[in-house]
């Protein structure tokens, strides 16, 4: 009964995805115009790349997954940090899920050629388990990569703040200090900052508003706070050099704290292997004595 129900549910889901791909729902014209206006007003600053081979294999499932509300607001911010496109992520989830679902059946076919039959329940349950793991694995990878990217961005942001306030101390203006500081550094973080400042020049908007939007898109509050401080200097002429220096010092202190936390975590993880090694060494030493006692009984 259970395999029949699972087969029916899988067949129904597959037919629904094929129907959505073949005949996608047509939204109203007013909704399309409102969406175009919103995209024109709030275009994303961060560029995201799409892998052609993933979309080629999994583009059939992308409309259906989008209708389910995937990938979510938080995960979409993580995708922007890592530079992966939303369609690529959804297609990879679908491809890995299908691969995990079919892998046990392929193994079952190979075993059947050798005369070994496991029945229907074993590959079915294993396929569902592997499909669930394949569907969730890209999300876990993106979250881990986004956490590392945000930490690297904060590390680069502290250096960027030092360069900005040094340039301001030299008598440069706010916009010149931002562009000169971004031009000096290298790496993905400085590249995103340079791209944001170039977008501000092309759209004729203030650089601090663009940096604030960049911080909101990437989920980095320190960048939004930097934009708020710089906007005071740009609009009201406030002195922000001391504030920028304090923010840079706070970021460096946070970096040192994170490094110490990581070191303590690594030390705690090493406690278990050392304990197991010590127990094995004690067993190796005590083994001859235990054998002699047992033989003497």
Description:
The protein is mostly helical and 297 residues long. The chain folds into two domains: 2-20 and 49-149, no CATH class; 151-252. It has twelve helices and no strands.
How does the SSE layout of this entry go?
Blueprint lengths: L1 H21 L6 H13 L10 H7 L3 H6 L5 H10 L3 H28 L7 H49 L4 H11 L3 H16 L3 H12 L2 H16 L4 H56 L1
Helix pairs in contact: 3-6, 5-7, 6-7, 7-8, 7-12, 8-9, 9-10, 10-11
Order of helices and strands: HHHHHHHHHHHH
Main sheet attributes: strand count, strand direction, barrel closure: none
- Secondary-structure class: mainly alpha
The helix count comes to 12
Number of domains: 2
Return the average pLDDT rounded to an integer: 79
CA-CA gap between termini: 58 Å
Backbone CA Rg: 28 Å
Low-confidence stretches: 38-42
Task: Based on the model shown, name its key terms.
12 helices; 2 domains; mainly alpha; 297 residues
Write a brief caption for the model.
The chain is mainly α. The chain has 12 helices and no strands. Helix 7 packs across helix 8 and helix 9 (188-203) packs across helix 10 (207-218).
